[in-house]
Amino acid sequence: MCILSGPGRPLGSSMRVAGIALAFVGVSLQSLGLVLQKKAQNEESCNTTVSNAFAFNAPDEDEDENEDDEDDTESLDLPEVETDIEYLKSKTWRIGFAIFLVGSVLCFVALGWIGPSMLVIVSSFALVMNLILSPIM
Predict the structure, then answer these.
(1) pLDDT, tens digit only, all 137 positions of the chain
(2) Which residues contact 5 (CB under 8 A, 6 or more apart)?
(3) Phi (first) and psi of residue 24, to 5 degrees
(4) pLDDT tens profile 32-62
(5) SS in 3 state form for 20-66?
């Protein structure tokens, strides 16, 4: 016995279409979230690199060049090294992570409607979304 939904269409068919649409939205949100996270990480690494570059104090050239190597290393004023995960505090990274989580939940819901074989095919759309979003951001 087939349950109909609409003019001559089985209910399962409309669920499959909704699942595919939901999977496309989920994959798009996952890609957007990942691009935002990478943007935040790149911005933080650029800020850290620039600030570390200006914080380095090179020894004056007027000093005697005949001093021991040991004295040269003592005269360098090296900046403190920050941790590599400072980007986690960025608002952009957190928004990207939240968007990625929403996309993952949508893909999980779509998995029940369309099955894993169809979800894997739709997930390849993430590459297209990355190609579109990466140059924009």
Answers:
(1) 444 445 555 557 888 999 999 999 999 999 999 999 999 888 877 776 555 555 545 555 555 555 555 555 566 676 665 567 777 788 988 999 999 999 999 999 999 999 999 999 999 999 999 899 888 87
(2) 11, 13, 14
(3) -65, -45
(4) 999 999 998 888 777 765 555 555 455 555 5
(5) HHHHHHHHHHHHHHHHHHHHHHHHHHHHHHHHHHHHCECCCCCCCCC
Q: How far is 115 from 37, CA to CA, in rounded Å?
A: 29
Match 């790149």 to its residue by tokens.
42
Please tell me what DSSP assigns to residue 86: G
Tokens for 93, please give them: 């990274």
Token representation of residue 117:
């074989």
The pair of three-digit structure tokens given for residue 92, joined into one six-digit string: 């952009």
The phi, psi pair for 57, rounded to 5°, reads -105, 110
